[in-house]
Design goal:
The protein has 4 helices and 3 strands; from the N terminus they run αβααββα. By secondary structure, the protein is α+β, with helices and mostly antiparallel strands. The protein starts with 14 loop residues before the first helix and ends with a helix. This is Transcriptional regulator.
Length: 100
């Protein structure tokens, strides 16, 4: 019998990354400052976790300027959405097995 913990996504096991993906799955996109405020984390913490998600191609990044200020928007990719769903399915399977 396969260990259900093996199905968890290593990238999404990190609390902040799971929170970021939760926000991006629930919304079309989110900008850097909104995510930082919503998750109550530092610029550096958010930036490093966004880089990890971008490296895995779980998110796409769109950089632009609004009134001469930089605006960075993030969006969950199809790969990110699929990985998130599989991670949640694995968690649900773990819970089901614990109830037996």
């Amino acid at each position: 019998m396969k260990n259900p913990f093996d199905n968890l996504d290593k990238t999404l096991e990190h609390r902040v990354r799971l929170q970021i993906m939760s926000v991006l799955i629930a919304n079309e996109y989110a900008d850097f400052n909104s995510l930082k405020e919503m998750l109550d984390i530092t610029d550096g913490n958010l930036a490093s976790n966004m880089k990890a998600l971008e490296k895995e191609k779980y998110i796409s990044v769109n950089k632009s300027f609004t009134d001469r200020k930089p605006l960075t928007k993030y969006k969950a990719t199809e790969k990110g959405r699929t990985s998130f769903r599989k991670h949640l399915d694995a968690l649900e399977e773990i819970l089901k097995q614990q109830k037996k």
